[in-house]
Amino acid sequence: MRGYIVEDGKIFDRAGEFRAEFSRAEITVPDNVRLVLGRRLERLSAEAREVLTSAAAIGHSFRFGLLQSLLGQRDLDALLAALEQAEQMGLIVASAEGAETSFAFAHDLVRQTLLANISLPRRQLLHLRVAKALETTHPAAVSEHAVAIAHRSGRLLS
Questions:
Q1: How many whole angstroms separate alpha carbon 49 and alpha carbon 38?
Q2: pTM greater than 0.85
């Protein structure tokens, strides 16, 4: 990825100075990388892809309880099997730090690819559902999570 940024001439600003920061819009993923990731994601079961797409809307990392709330009445064994499949394929990594199990995408490109594979209206609806799941899972701390909720809901306007 870094080589691609250098080859594309994005590592220096107009004055020829080294750039330390980049916006997401400036960093494009080569088609061949997306193709490889897409093929890898196709090896997942439909259930696992759906679970991971929902997790991708939460963010780079996600707590199991929030994902479970987001997915509603989904069978717990099916949810766990989907996460286990993704973990075995190296797409997510589990962490037992803290009181609740959390997961993180092994690379943000996996998350971006999952979200890119659904339509904008579906992505917007998913972000709205994430905001509602945040409100449900943290009723006593809504103000603490208000920024995250507003950020998710705000994506509906874009």
A1: 11
A2: no
